[in-house]
Amino acid sequence: MNTALPPHQRSWKASDRDAVRLCREWMVYLGAADVVAASGDVAEVCDLYSNRFLAWVDDRPGNLDVDAVRRVAGMAASDGRRALVFHPGGVFPDAQDQADALGVALFRYDARGGNLDGANQVGRSLRVTGLAGN
After folding, report:
1. Which of 122, 34, 132, 133 is nearest to 85 (CA)?
2. What are phi and psi of 3, to 5 degrees?
């Protein structure tokens, strides 16, 4: 059983580094207890990783596009782990469809509100079931 607490609300908009820290907390809460923030050469590939997941934190303003989904899906597939993308904004419908087809979980995080929602079917499913058994 997961004993981690969900991340607390932030009183500020998350900076790049803070966004990675926040999404790491969400991954731990969802059951990926072994997740670490990438550093060095690994940080060129992803922002967070665990035994079963590679995660990217895309905190750019605007909607997540299909090119970003295809890029992370390709990197994760070549590595053999599942791809997770955390984004504070919206997701274009074609990016949602492509992510579902490729098995990429999209999550929408709100640092100030302390919320995390699935932004596609795969993300919604993992938000409910967690990452421990997936």
Report:
1. 122
2. -105, 0
| Separation CA 67–CA 71 (nearest Å) | 6
DSSP string over the chain: ---PPPPPPPSS---HHHHHHHHHHHHHHTT-TT-EE--GGGGGT-SEE-SSEEEEE---SS-B-HHHHHHHHHHHHHHTSEEEEEESS-B-HHHHHHHHHHT-EEEEEETTTTEEEESSHHHHHHHHH-STT-
For residue 134, what are its two tokens?
């997936």
pTM of the model: 0.92
Each residue's pLDDT, cut to its tens digit, for the chain (134 residues) gives 466 788 877 766 666 788 899 999 999 999 999 999 998 887 788 999 999 999 999 988 899 999 999 999 999 999 999 999 999 999 999 999 999 999 999 999 998 888 999 999 999 999 999 998 76
**Distance set, CA 120 to CA 11, 13, 44 (Å):** 27, 23, 25
Between CA 126 and CA 109, with CA 83 as vertex, the angle to 5 degrees is 60
